[in-house]
Amino acid sequence: MRTFESLLGLPGGLLVPEPDTVNRSLTLAETEMLRKLNREFRGNGLPDELYSKLVRGGAVLHMKNTCRPTPGDARICTPAWALEAAAGIGAEMAERIGSMGVRVLGDPALLSVLPAAESAEPVPVRIDAEVAAQALYGALAAAATVPARRTPARTVHQTPSRELVGCWATGCSGG
User: Angle at the Cα of 123 (from 120 to 125), degrees rounded to 5?
Assistant: First the structure.
């Protein structure tokens, strides 16, 4: 955040981290659990606000903050075709950036570097009982904090994407 502040000429310390957030990727098992939960949630017509509260702000947030993946946990592997497509898009973007005549920090050519493809061997996807319990607890704890009459202000992370896009398009404001 300090680097971003200096790039924009902002005073140091203006940007503050969001409390209770861990910036880590989900494991393959966590992602599969969430994908299946999403299918059930959406398939049963539950409201987006409830999803945001219970899944995003409850299950996922709590799971990411309390569970630490082990070296043995299967990671999500990007398929070779997607890596190649991303490198191609990166090369186009680097060319466009170079033609704009703007000051660039770093090497735009790195946008087109094709990373080594990871092993695509199928791995068993099993969620650890502790991880599942922490995700469930997070959802239950989020449900327990739902006030009876008044909806609390939400952070951007807790607001459904569809609603954010609607606000952006109409210029809405408020909590």
Answer: 130
